[in-house]
Amino acid sequence: MQAKEIKIYTDSQLVASQVLGEYQAKNDNLSEYITLVKEKITKFDSAE
């Protein structure tokens, strides 16, 4: 059984905006993590 939906919580508006593509990550290491998160989110039917 796999999850089809995910609900993500963060206390960082900056990180949330970076994941949503509203802001660009300036740090290369952080940019790699943001890319990884974006790839993982696409595996779900729904993400909020």
Automatic annotation (TrEMBL):
InterPro entries in the record: RNaseH-like_sf, RNaseH_sf
GO MF assignments? nucleic acid binding
Q: Which domain of life is it from?
A: Eukaryota
Transmembrane region(s): none
Report what the protein is called. Answer: RNase H type-1 domain-containing protein
The taxonomic lineage of its organism, from the top, reads: Eukaryota, Viridiplantae, Streptophyta, Embryophyta, Tracheophyta
